[in-house]
Design a protein that fits this description.
The chain has 285 residues and is α/β, with parallel strands linked by helices. The protein has 11 helices and 12 strands. Helix 1 packs across helix 4, helix 3 packs antiparallel against helix 4 and helix 8 packs parallel to helix 9.
């Protein structure tokens, strides 16, 4: 897997700050302030309670440091690496109140992101030995897209476009309004600059041929069975990047990859992957 580039703090901090404001509300952490002495210090560990791929440590670290910059955080397992149940992922030392007040926000981000990374890693493993690569979609949680797409990368997948502004993807509804595949492509090519790639969604092999004749850079093959996908690969002859999409599961992804498509997009990775079970515990030496 390529080296995992970290998320910018310019992206991380506003989201984490908003989450802390949501959690601490108007009065702060009244439970911790009522039960934990202000001068108490503690040592805590964030540990895996299930096996999975880790993602989101910088986000968790931001939560702790926004609450209290004096906290000392030592990472034991980096993003993009696997943990087994019981493994210590990071250690936190410092004022006990601060650790407890930041705990839930840190774990919410890390658990969600690690769940996406874990699911992605399973899909990537399932297609090993083929030329297909696993990619995500724009089916993401509002305001968390950068975090979720980072988690896909931590799982060994690659990212589709980040928004409507960084690539042209002509879907079935665009085609319906434009008139047909050819008309939609011609309009897109007239509008696109030389740096903007054009992908178009097709439902049939006839539409695929129209897309290739129209000069599409990539073609999304929507809800095609394996037999049809193989025919699509034969028709394409390497002209355009072929992306298989639609209802793909861990059970079906290997067969789809073996048809010879270049990309397999899985919306489930970001909209439905279960959170990885992580926990924070106070450590007593």
């Amino acid at each position: 897997m390529p080296e995992l580039e970290p998320l910018s703090q310019l992206i991380i901090e506003p989201a984490v700050r908003a989450a802390l404001q949501e959690d601490l509300g108007r009065a702060g952490d009244v439970t911790t302030e009522a039960t934990v002495p202000a001068q108490a210090t503690a040592r805590a560990v964030i540990a895996a309670r299930a096996q999975g791929r880790i993602a989101g440590l910088d986000v968790a670290r931001c939560a702790f440091r926004l609450v209290d910059a004096s906290l000392n955080i030592a990472v034991q397992i980096k993003d993009g690496n696997d943990a087994t149940s019981g493994d210590a992922i990071c250690l936190i030392e410092g004022p006990a109140r601060s650790i407890l007040s930041a705990e839930r926000v840190a774990l919410n981000f890390m658990g969600h992101m690690s769940g996406i990374a874990t699911a992605t890693a399973a899909f990537v493993k399932a297609v090993e030995g083929t030329t297909a690569r696993i990619t995500c979609t724009r089916k993401t949680t509002p305001n968390l897209r950068a975090f979720e797409k980072y988690a896909v990368r931590a799982g060994g997948g690659i990212n589709h476009r980040f928004g409507l502004d960084d690539g042209i993807l002509i879907k079935d509804n665009h085609i319906a309004v434009a008139g047909d595949v050819r008309a939609a492509l011609e309009a897109a090519k007239a509008r696109a600059g030389h740096m903007l790639r054009i992908e178009i969604e097709v439902d049939t092999l006839d539409q695929l041929q129209q897309a290739l004749d129209g000069g599409a850079h990539a073609v999304l093959l929507d809800n095609m069975d394996e037999s049809t996908l193989r025919k699509a690969v034969e028709i394409n002859k390497g002209q355009a990047t072929l992306e298989a999409s639609g209802g793909i599961t861990l059970e079906t992804v290997r067969g789809i990859a073996e048809t010879g498509v270049d990309l397999i997009s899985v919306g489930w990775l970001t909209h439905s992957a279960p959170s990885l079970d992580l926990g924070l515990d106070i450590v007593f030496d």
